[in-house]
Amino acid sequence: MAFWKQFILSLIVIIAGFAAWVFFVPGAGDMMRDAGIPESLVSKIVPKAEETADAGAPAGAQSQRRGQGQGQNRRNGGGRNSAVLVATEAVVQGVVNDRLNAIGTGDAIRSVAVTPQASGTIREILIKSGDRVKAGQVLAKLDSEEQVIARGQADVAVRAAVEKSNLYHNIKSSVSRMDVFDSEIAEQGARLQLQAAELNLARRNIIAPIDGIVGIVPVNIGDNVTTTTPIVTLDDRSEILVDFWVPERFSNTVAVGQPVEAMSVAKPGQVFSGVIEAVDNRIDAASRTLRLRARIDNSSDELRAGMSFSVSMKFPGDKYPAVDPQSVQWDSQGSFVWQVTEDKSHKVRVSIVQRNPDFILVKADLKDGDKIVTQGLQRVREGGAVRVGADVAANGEVATQ
Prior knowledge:
By secondary structure, this protein is of the alpha+beta class. Helices cover about 30% and strands about 35% of the residues. Strands 1, 14, 15, 16, 19 and 20 form a six-stranded mixed sheet that branches.
């Protein structure tokens, strides 16, 4: 059989089946309304079908059909013109909260990798991992025998230069002014040599440049080190700096001093508060993101440098009507809610702005206090009579009072 013949035959069978269903199934009209078919179309199809079916049926069948229809109407809430029992909630004002979420990396507010100021062999280590140290505290010492000797020699040279200078000043009449001047220059040079020797000796001590906490010490006594060898890392983690990147659209929204919240993987469920410390001066051209830096208080010393953080910020936005999530329905034209006015239900079209766990923000012709149907929605019709119930059954249906 040709395809077009098969298609026409299938279409005839479908139409015949639909007509039979409309003619012989009680309550077909209500089922069509529940399926979302417009009332105007249902009213044209169903009455004609019922009249045709009743005209050709015996009196007993007509009586049985009317009884079935009435029973169906009772199950559907007592008929189209009876009041439907529903539950409602009032519309409230909600604010669109534009929330920013990003992942960042924490760092100590001050961190220093300590290296020696001179090369040599480590003779003494005075700290261990986890120690708290103060600025200026000696962390380790290098061998210093050569520097001690050099300082002694410089000290002797200073004393000799001072004696010679004093002698020349006492016998100015016997020596030339140039000799006196040379002795003074020699004294000053000797003193400078002594200062240099003392500085070289002091540099054999490795000093903490900041207050902080000692990390793992990677060197041992007897190691030969240079000015590039890391001795230890000091972290001042009284505050933690978190660097993170945000989309370009937030570039004109974020500012220094704005509050932030951060959560660490190591402290699940615990929220740490902070503020924006710095905002970068340019957008990254490759990722189209902006770099921000937040400062988080860590006086309790619960956080560590290098931790990953989930950072969030809230930006208050425009106000919209807020309705219960259960009240929003859908049909072929989009989303809507049922508004109750003077004990009548009316369909109000809405446009969803933001979904939240407890409510939905919508753009619609609604104001504070408007009653919106939240339960009993399956029996509500446009312009239908409704009455508001006080109790709701456990299955989600409105309970009879």
